[in-house]
Write a structure and sequence with these properties.
The chain has twelve helices and twelve strands. With about 350 residues, it is an alpha/beta fold. It folds into two domains: about 250 residues, P-loop containing nucleotide triphosphate hydrolases (Rossmann fold, 3-Layer(aba) Sandwich); about 70 residues, no CATH class.
Length: about 350
């Protein structure tokens, strides 16, 4: 990914996310009165360049999937901007446009869903599943079958199988069908929501390799959502780490893995198996549970589980600040702490 990262600096920005918020009402009782707010996403900002792959990582419940759905307007954001650079050169705020305008924009912004077993309609053939976006967007009916065949070949499936049903395929093949459906309208930005988490490890590698190939051949840009850093490091140019609805660190992949600047990132990195089995890393076990986004702690949201926390962490929320080239962290002591990163085997030899 190093060459891709170097080239990214010359590419145009395709997505700007500014202070994105996604709050849900918390209701209780027979009358469902509102008693609070769940701040699933609370002030997330980042930029994405063309053909860049950004990993969005964190524990379950941190808000990463909600970010992905808000980017594509599957949820109406509570606040903030999602600025998308369209193929015609114009900028559009996804968070503000009408539903009619959004339908047209969905040709350029698509999603790969997590579960290949539940995301495909069992009553439809593979042809109809892949063709569905083409039908919705009024594609030429005479060309649909040939387009489906083209898409199946692109993802490594035989067009002769288009008359089969989802249950006749393996998990990896089903995910390839989902990818083919996503590519039907020639999108430019794809949000991949845990696309390999439901697959066996060997099949995960096949799907990841497929996504990398498609990125290069079709000039695609990805937001890759995952809870597994060991998966993200192989496909992403940069990684954004989320915790309780907030972005706590954002950096190029190699920089974040070798030189984490937030204690939460350090804990995630410590769980990544080193490339050299002879290298022993200290596994950091976080105590306690992830706080509820309906009642986040005061100050830094991570301080109840942080082994470096001090009084200021309990009282003041740290801002997301730049601490190096393209490296941002949300920690009062990000420039003072010496945190454990992945060991570079080449320098240890």
């Amino acid at each position: 990914m190093a060459e891709a990262s170097a080239a990214n600096g010359k590419r145009d920005i395709i997505l700007k996310v500014n202070d994105l918020k996604m709050h849900f009402p918390l209701r209780r009782g027979l009358l469902q009165r509102r008693v609070g707010t769940i701040k699933a996403v609370d002030g997330v900002s980042f930029e994405l360049r063309e053909q860049e792959v950004m990993g969005l990582v964190g524990e379950s419940g941190c808000g990463k999937t909600t970010v992905g759905r808000a980017l594509l307007r599957l949820y109406d954001p509570t606040g903030g901007e999602v600025l998308f650079h369209r193929a015609d050169g114009s900028w559009v705020d996804v968070a503000q446009i009408s539903r009619k305008e959004m339908k047209d924009l969905r040709k350029e912004m698509r999603m790969i869903f997590q579960d290949p077993f539940s995301s495909l309609n069992p009553r439809l053939t593979v042809r109809d599943i892949i063709a569905e976006p083409l039908v919705i967007h009024n594609a030429d009916s005479d060309k649909i079958t040939s387009r489906v065949a083209e898409l199946m070949e692109a993802v490594g499936l035989k067009p002769a199988y288009m008359g089969r049903y989802p249950h006749e395929f393996s998990g990896g093949q089903r995910q390839r069908i989902g990818v083919a459906r996503t590519l039907a309208l020639n999108p430019r930005l794809i949000v991949a929501d845990e696309p390999v988490s439901a697959l066996d490890v060997s099949v995960q590698a096949q799907v990841l390799n497929l996504l990398q190939t498609l990125r290069d051949e079709l000039r695609l840009t990805f937001v890759f959502i995952s809870h597994d850093l060991s998966v993200v490091e192989h496909i992403c140019d940069k990684i954004a780490v989320m915790y309780v609805g907030k972005l706590v660190e954002l950096a190029p992949t190699d920089e974040l893995l070798r030189n984490p600047k937030h204690p939460y990132t350090e804990a995630l990195v410590s769980a990544v198996p080193p490339a050299d089995p002879l290298i022993k890393m200290e596994r950091i076990i976080l105590e306690g549970d992830v706080p509820s986004p309906a009642n986040p702690p005061a100050g830094c949201v991570f301080h109840p589980r942080c082994r470096y926390a001090q009084d200021i962490c309990r009282e003041q929320e740290p801002p997301l600040v730049q601490i190096g080239p393209d490296h941002h962290a949300r920690c009062h002591f990000s420039e003072e702490l010496e945190l454990q990163g992945v060991v570079d085997v080449s320098t240890e030899a």
